[in-house]
Amino acid sequence: MRNSTPVVAESGAVVTGAARPLGYDDADAARFEIEHHRSRRDGFARDRARVLHSAALRRLAAKTQVLSPASPADFARNRLTHSLEVAQVGRELATALQLSPDVVDTACLSHDLGHPPFGHNGERALNDWAEGIGGFEGNAQTLRILTRLEPKVIGTDGRSYGLNLTRASLDATCKYPWTSEHPLPDPGGRLKYGVYPDDEDVFRWMREGAPGRVRCIEAEVMDLSDDIAYSVHDFEDAVVNLYLDPARLSDTGEHGALLTAIQSWVGFDFPRDELEDALYRLMRLPEWLPSFDGTRPDLARLKNLTSDLIGRFARAATTATREAYPADTLTRYRAHVVVPRVVEAEMAVLKGIIGATVVSIDGRKALYKEQRGVLKRLATALWERPDALDAIHAEDFALATDDTARRRVIVDQVASLTDQLAIAWHTRLIGEVDAASLGIWAPTAPAPSAGDR
Questions:
Q1: Which domain holds residue 417?
Q2: CB-based contact 99:23 (threshold 8 Å)
Q3: Pick from 317, 291, 318: which is nearest to 305 by CA?
Q4: DSSP 8-state class, residue 268
């Protein structure tokens, strides 16, 4: 059953032509800024299209996932391909749980929009540079992009409302539904929150009627889909690009050192014996790869292992959630995703293997340090030379009323750049850097002018 009559939400936002899936009401379909549409397209489908066509999503094609998009790796995932794969997993989970596939798809496509150049390493760099104005957080930056920075909806007051997504879709993108005033640390110790202080008006609107600090189930599906894709696909990339030898994983004599490395990466939420059991289960799967030599049959076996692992994790979570919540309608705050402990442990093992073999390689420490240096120097140079900002951020800088707001614009600009554009801008404003020292082997493009984006 679907609703199809135009409605006016409590915010006053007119939702015309809305054909909402069962389980979503007028408030879920409302938009922060009033919109009128002639077509009768589902508002949630419109949300997905807006993110899919956004420049912010396209830029993810040139942003680091684990390996740089311009590294010598053979077509390793970048942030865009990762986001597309997360969306595919999320859409399947949403369908199985009878949630809106478009709401979950939108959240999955959006989940990494706030990431700056050089992945989480770049996030640390901007957090350091922005310490005096509240820091940098990729999830809060995502909300800022969706509700302010991405050009799409301009109000009659001249204010940018970003993509102006519906409440349900916007809330589904929010992994940390609390403010920077009360952050929580992640397993790595980084303080996580979902909104900067100057974006709290739309955040409060988005969270109207929601339980405090509780995610909607669509956001939980997005987060699980991210975990599944990250753990499985990055494992695949590590094998294909020879960072990881499956034959060594099969050597039980090396399991002691491997488990120590895994636990140092994933933390102590899982006891060592639980991680050991999870590693054993994975390696006993019929599809497990005992070795890899890069031939077509081995690549096919690896791809089938990837598919089987995704199905294994998704089916287990779907079954457990349905058993815990037998009601027909699980949307929004009616239920929570249930992930069996054994599945969490297996995903943790895969993540730990990647962390131990790719991310934490000692030889990459100098690379990470130089990447952070590039972004910090670039932010300082733009602060001293705001005339070098692109047209959109130059306008924001000019309209900013104090140094806190102006410094936030500098952060917005640097965060928006791709890996190679960050290097090109550094070359233009500060001086040339050795691309190889940043994990990039391909020649960079000529440095663009301020408006060349």
A1: 364-438
A2: yes
A3: 291
A4: S
